[in-house]
Amino acid sequence: MSCKYETWEYVPESPLKDQLRAIVSQSPTSLALDCLLREPDDLQIVLKTLRVVEVYTVTTLSMRYCPALRTEAGLDLLLELCGEVWENPQPKGVLTFGPNLAMIETMYLSESLNEREVSQVTKAWQGRGHQHVAPGMVLVEGEEPKTMHTFRRKPKGYAPLKAERNDLYIPKVMIDEIDAAGGKKKGGGGKKGKGGGKKKEMKVRPLC
Question: What band does 132 get if pLDDT is binned at 50, 70 and 90?
Fold first, then answer.
């Protein structure tokens, strides 16, 4: 999709340009784009600017009351953004296993999407990780019900379930061996310890 702005510098002076300038000069972790995305080109230049920074830092986007997201082109860009992954340089002096990846972890989209669009965004969002907080209705006394379209990949205080902990911390080959042995570790049935007593069990401290 072509964009009428070649780079962020071509955007007229406005609150939107202030946010774009912050991306390249201040390494922000969040962007407040509420009411600023009036047309698809506005979202396109945001995405274009995020892609050219040397170290990606933005993890939270607020895009409430943005009519651009209700257009077909704007929605396509939003779906693209949901699956975007940035690879940052490895931090100096830190031993890492694998690439240093970053992505959008929280999006606020209230009053920018209808229900059909929310379902499409949810599907795209979950392609890169489960949505732990689902959009829901908020009731305020004396006001019409509002749909709060908040997307998070991992909320504060997130505690993985047992099966999720296994996926995170136990290598698959070990899980397969345990399953093949009927839930028991291989190599059981050895001799008792000295003095005929029972072999002491080693207590493993849980990782979470």
Answer: low
Print burial letters for 11-26: b (CB count within 10 Å at least 16), e (below 16).
beeeebbebbebbeee
- SS3 track for the chain: CCCCCCCHHHCCCCHHHHHHHHHHHCCCCEEECCCCCCCHHHHHHHHHHHCCCCCCCCCEEECCCCHHHHCHHHHHHHHHHHCCCEEECCCCCCCCCCCEEECCCEEECCCCCCHHHHHHHHHHHHCCCCCCECCEEECCCCCCCEEECEEECCCCCCCCCHHHHHHHHCCHHHHHHHHHCCCCCCCCCCCCCCCCCCCCCCCCCCCC
Closest listed residue to residue 35, CA positions, set 65, 15, 12, 71: 65
**CA–CA separation, 204 and 208 (whole Å):** 12
Say if residue 154's pLDDT is above 90.
no
Structure tokens of 140? Answer: 């305020």
Using one digit for the tens of pLDDT, what is the confidence trace for 1-58?
A: 678 899 999 999 999 999 999 999 999 999 999 999 999 999 999 999 999 999 999 9
Question: 81: which 2 tokens?
Answer: 């953004």
